[in-house]
Design goal:
There is one protein chain. The protein is mainly α and 364 residues long. A four-stranded mixed beta sheet has the order 3-2-1-4, sandwiched between helices. It has 14 helices and four strands.
Length: 364
Amino acid sequence: MAEEKLLLGIDLQLFAEEKTEEATPHRRQQARRRGQVAKSTDLNAALVLLVSVVMLYGLRNYFFENTGGFASFMLGHWMAQPFNEENLLHLAREVFTTYFRVMAPMFVVAIGIGVAANIGQVGFKITPKAIEPKLSHLNPIQGFKRMFSRRSLVELIKSVLKIVIVGFISYSLVRGGFETLLFLVDMSVLQSIDVVARLIFKVGMGVMAAFIAIAILDYIFQRKEFEKSLRMSKQEVKEEFKQMEGDPLVKAKLREKQRQLALHRMMHSVPEATVIVTNPIHLAVALKYEVKSEGAPVVLAKGAGAIAERIKSKAREHNIPIVEDKPVAQFIYKNVEIGQEIPPELYQSVAEILAMLYRMRGKI
């Protein structure tokens, strides 16, 4: 029994088809509609944090003036006000107004950078399916697999790496400026704030440089994983081709149906012909000519073999003359399509055929 199970397992592995083919444009489009794209959230976060650090340092005087003015107003005005519900609501309104006025530039730029970073990675695409709830996410077995997947391992390594880098860079830079921090007690408030801001900016830029490097590596990894997840087996490529282009059997049947309809329409027009020109056995061509018309004779039908026999049979049913002229029949069959007029080089030959018919009918 054990050997049978082993053989069964081996057979299944042999028959399992590996996903070795690159994803087709259709598969990529379907994945994008489901919200599956190659994107690094770390890259977005790193860019937003970088811009935030730069803005905090560049607008430090703006922040200080607004917060300092608000603090002075609080200590000078609100401390003397009675504590009641009306003053409390007024104070809360002042706090929120000042906070949003001070932080508005940060919020606007951070949101703009976040949106730009997303669009830069995946383009502009709204995918409602990406936020639809999925019952598969509640599957404990799938959740357990995700916990010990390659992606989870990479995320763990990234988290540990971030902690180590932040700690190392912060310690190194703060230790380098530790002597300067000892003299803060002898500086004014503005000087102290400037020194601390410079040190924070230096630490922040060092950390951000490391974060961006990690984010770029993460983006490369995410793209590779995404491409790997989209790979298809040869059978899947064939099935998709059938769905996109149509099953060859269905297409063959459709072509056969179209051919039959075209043949039916052609045979239906044979009774309108003026003359049938034959090979005489293999080919048959039906021509229509109207005396009052200024145009040349028109080809109503043509065929070889069994179709030629049907054309001649239809012509006999409706008493249409059948004339043998091999060169004319062969030339029209090979070079003139149904519904087209005969070319000038056949005018003389066809005119002789029509003249003979009119003489036979006593019209000339």
